[in-house]
Amino acid sequence: MKALGVHGVGNFLPDQPPDQAAAHLAKIWAGALARSKTHNGGVPEGGREEVAVAYYSDLLSRRGSQGPDDLESLNEFERELVGLWLESCDLPEATAAGRSTAPLRQALAWLARSRGLGRPAVEWFVAVCFREVAAYLRDPVREQVRSRVAEALAKQQPTVVIAHSLGSVVAYETLWAHPELQVDLLVTLGSPLALPHAVFPRLQPAPVEKKGRRPPNVTRWVNIADPGDLVAIPPGGVQNGFLGVQEPKGQPIHAFDFHKAVNYLATPQLREVLDGQRT
Length: 279
Prior knowledge:
Layout: E1 2-6, H1 18-36, E2 50-54, H2 76-86, H3 101-115, H4 119-136, H5 141-156, E3 160-164, H6 166-177, E4 183-189, E5 212-213, E6 218-224, H7 237-241, E7 242-243, H8 261-265, H9 268-278
Parallel strand pairs: 1-2, 1-3, 3-4, 4-6, 5-7
Helix pairs in contact: 2-3, 2-4, 5-6
């Protein structure tokens, strides 16, 4: 199997040039995929796996910004996206989602308590996540990111593309924009593609009659999402919102780090999909 990974949020490596950062992430992804082989106490049959990663996180960073990743540092558009995301999180009516800092903190505190998570960690993740999502959704960054991923696809010529988190949006749009790039299997992990208002209606190409579609140059598309993943919402949204996608029954990925790429990559669900592609 020859795979290309498309990473998600929180992977900016400021001290490494893009090629070194890509190689660093590829080692991490390859290690996680290798761990998935032994989930049943054995190693399945199959050829050698080659894993590369398309790195683009540097293109999303705020040039010259040295400030902390927190809610106060978010700009108006970033806060708007957080508010739209919170509207999809089934907050109790008494919890004001809002889009100013105070209501956002109130809503995130409720989310942290309801999931047994630490509030500071949730606030940090949300700040990082939606800063990068907002950066991607704005031109010319969007085209720059897609061009870099397309270059990696053309160079690596993978049979499988594994896209995590925001990387699933990037991969989806890149494959649509480059029909000459053929892929046997697209696997999306913890994907926000179906996120109402914040992501889904902003996709390029836009959904038709409220439905997205599998890119025509992709033979098979499988989506895997932890039922508790706060990024992959609404639950079952990708399968319901897109034509031509398969979605195995949701199974917990991890009790706390349910959105982390290495936990998705090491799961039996993903291993079954990859092994099935070889048969």
